[in-house]
Each structure stands twice: as C-alpha cells, then as structure tokens.
Amino acid sequence: MAKSGFWKYLWISVFCFIFGRVYESFSHGVESAYMMQFWLIPVILGIVPCLLSAFFPSSPRLVRKLWVAGMETLIAGTVLAGIFEIYGTTNQYVRWYWIVGGILLAVAAVFYLLSCVWRKKKA
Length: 123
Description:
- This protein is an all-alpha fold.
- The protein has one domain (2-122).
- 80% of the residues lie in helices and 0% in strands.
- The chain is elongated.
C-alpha cells in the first residue's frame, strides 16, 4: 500500500501543480495563493502518511476511504476558492468544503485510533 500509494499521490501532486500553473497562466496576470499551493494537500495528506505507514499499524479500509474523501474534498474546495479569487468573486459555500473535508479527516483519524485500541485489546 505504501509504495503504490506514494506513487499515486506523487502523480496527483504533480498534476495539481501543473494544473495550478496552467490555470494561472490563462488568468491574465491575476494570482491566487489557493491555486498556487493546492498541490501541497496531496503531498501532506497523501505522501507523508504513506511514508509514515511503515512505522504504524495498517489502517482499515473504511479509514483509508474516509481519509481520501477528506483529502479530495479539501482539494476541490481549494481549487474552487482559487477560481473564485482569480475571477474576483466570492462564494459562501466554499467554506463548507473545508469544514466537511476536515470532518472527514477527523473521523478517519478517530476511527484509526479506535481500530488500534481494538487490536491491542484483541491481542
């Protein structure tokens, strides 16, 4: 999981980086911090956990799915915030992407900790 996940998130990060740069090149000189740095989300929430997974117990499928859903939600929200910022508009619903993404990541972390405790009790 760690090796294949590492490469998957590396390529997602590269795609996000290129997408952000290409999108900003067509934005007529308007820049957005969201678009310039949203590629860091798959690095921090994808690559780093893959590298650390060698030192921790494996996670259940539900935890992995919730974590990926949270990461994808944060990426979508950040891209939308960047698009709105480039076009000079705002949208009150963008913050919900970050709230829902954070909740998904928190639930995944809690379930992971509970699964670790359950494994220790079972052993």
